[in-house]
Amino acid sequence: MFADREPPTIENCIDPPTLYTDFDSGLANVTWDEPVFYDNSRIAVRVNQSHQPGQNLFFPVGRTKVFYNATDKYGNRASCVLNITVEGAYLFINDYI
Q: What pLDDT was estimated at residue 92?
């Protein structure tokens, strides 16, 4: 019998570029590239995440952490945390005078 003790492999666990908004409060409907999880057993892993891209959630100005947790058939775990950063993009008229 094979005892798998290797956690799933993670690809693309990379913070997306900073998003800019001219609204003081933040953005809704934010999208990003999601990480991909693979297992050495070639069996699909179960992935739970705190947020989904494109979901109509509000991301305030600042940094929001998005958590991904993957578990394979044998209970081995791997995680990824993405930082979604939203900054205000303010246009100052004095800069163009």
A: 53
